[in-house]
Design brief:
154 residues, 2,3-Dihydroxybiphenyl 1,2-Dioxygenase, domain 1, 4-stranded mixed beta sheet, 18% helix, VOC_core, At5g48480-like_C
């Protein structure tokens, strides 16, 4: 038995402090995320009304990810928040409704919802219907149909 095998992956999204709570609210409103755990930053400054987030684990469907405030004291976090080439893929039965809900919560749609195309996230959606979004914190999300891929005619 391999005792060194990784058993889970949880992406961690860093958000410029103090926008962590705003990000958590966005992911709940836009994608129906459920909060699993929350740990506030122990070095809260007295003038802060809302404590900074050390980590909040959110769950969408069966997948989890972590949101954290990026502070000046964070040595493990990237020095600057920028695009990392990472795209988060979500599956749903109704792509149009999911994209509309995310846009209403503050996301920006990037392009049109496409059917079976590869240009905007075909690899993520595997030939299924999909739409691309950018959340208010700069992260890119592909919203893909959970149904079978579209068959291309020859």
């Amino acid at each position: 038995m391999d005792h060194h095998k990784c058993v889970m992956s949880k992406p961690q999204l860093f958000v410029e402090a103090p926008k962590g709570n705003e990000a958590v609210k966005f992911y709940k409103d836009a994608f129906g995320a459920e909060e699993v755990t929350r740990v506030n930053h122990p070095k809260r400054k007295a003038e802060q009304e809302i404590p900074l987030i050390l980590s909040v684990e959110l769950k969408i469907g069966s997948s989890s990810f972590i949101v954290a405030d990026l502070t000046d004291e964070d040595s493990s976090a990237p020095v600057k928040i920028a695009s990392t080439g990472c795209v988060f893929c979500l599956e749903t039965e109704n792509v149009d409704a999911a994209v509309s809900k995310a846009v209403a919560a503050g996301a920006v749609a990037e392009g049109e919802i496409t059917e079976g195309g590869v240009a905007d996230g075909g690899a993520c959606c595997g030939g299924r219907v999909g739409g691309k979004l950018k959340d208010p914190f700069g992260n890119v999300w592909m919203i893909c149909s959970s149904s079978s891929p579209v068959k291309k005619s020859e």
